[in-house]
Design goal:
33% of the residues lie in helices and 19% in strands. By secondary structure, it is an alpha/beta fold. The chain has a seven-stranded mixed β-sheet with strand order 3-2-1-4-5-7-6, with helices on both faces. α4 links the parallel β4 and β5. The longest helix is centred in the N-terminal third of the chain and has 18 residues. The mean pLDDT is 82.
């Protein structure tokens, strides 16, 4: 019993210290990290993909779920009603979507009420990412689209994270390793069809602006050769719902007395007897 208690205490300490942090508590610090030089470069590259994907998407309602309220992710969208939800209160400002407080894995929205959902680094910081995807599938309209932007574990960013999670308490390292294939499998189980898969930003997560500017050649080579080591992956998926074909009743063979000993109805009305004029 003593050994089991020690193991449980060690496990709880490891989860608190190195596991996935509480999203509501980490979100302000994540927004501050996104305002750093590296975070702004990363966000600029992500918005390039978002602008291209949103330019040809139409609808009435767009939902943003992001680690930052100041990211302005849907500026290129033609959808007029754009809003965001977050665990902490987000007031509305002119030029950005209206914000409200809500749990990201229990959305207070009606089923099939949203046309587009943007998941901007929220899956990996959620302790129940599969439930979040189920909620997104529930609120999306048929043929609606979800756009997922997540950190790529198989990149320089993922390599830094694997080491830094044991040596640092910074919020950007307190997330799950959700690879693109795993997210695509979850989307496929929820009847989503992947329309676009890509990745970008090949520079390591360094804090020195001069070093990041010097390593800009990594972006040119990575984008030109489509290398698989981008810091983030980008997925656009469509919610596919099988079309229901109505069955037309065959009224010609319908008879309530068929099989009960009654007379079967005629398949068609008898032709009228033609009248001939008498011969004079």
């Amino acid at each position: 019993m003593v050994g089991f208690s020690l193991i449980k205490r060690f496990t709880n300490f490891f989860e608190r210290r190195y596991g996935v942090g509480d999203y509501a508590r980490l979100r302000p610090a994540l927004a501050s990290w996104l305002n750093t030089h590296y975070g702004q470069l990363l966000l600029k590259e992500e918005k390039t993909y978002l602008d291209a994907a949103l330019s040809d998407v139409f609808g009435y309602h767009l939902l943003e779920l992001s680690i930052s309220d100041d990211a302005h992710l849907s500026d290129a969208s033609r959808i007029r009603h754009r809003f965001s939800l977050s665990p902490d209160f987000a007031p509305s400002y002119q030029g950005k979507p209206l914000g409200a407080q809500a749990e990201i894995d229990n959305l207070p929205l009606a089923s099939e009420s949203v046309d587009v959902v943007i998941l901007h680094h929220t899956l990996e910081f959620s302790q129940r990412p599969h439930l979040m995807l189920r909620e997104v599938s529930r609120v999306l309209m048929p043929r609606g689209r979800v756009i997922v932007v997540g950190f790529n574990p198989s990149s320089l960013f993922g390599l830094f994270k694997a080491v830094a999670r044991f040596t640092s308490c910074r919020p950007q390292w307190r997330h799950q390793n959700l690879g693109k294939r795993r997210v695509l499998d979850w989307l496929r189980l929820l009847d989503f069809e992947a329309l676009q898969q890509s990745q970008g930003f090949y520079r390591p997560p360094l804090t020195h602006p001069k070093v990041l500017r010097y390593l800009a050649w990594l972006e040119i080579i990575g984008q030109k050769l489509h290398l698989p080591g981008g810091s983030f992956y980008f997925i656009v998926a469509r919610k596919d719902v099988a079309a229901m074909t109505p069955l037309k009743p065959n009224w010609q063979t319908f008879g309530p007395m068929v099989g009960l000993g009654g007379r079967e109805p005629a398949s068609r009305m008898p032709e009228p007897i033609s009248r001939q004029k008498p011969k004079l």
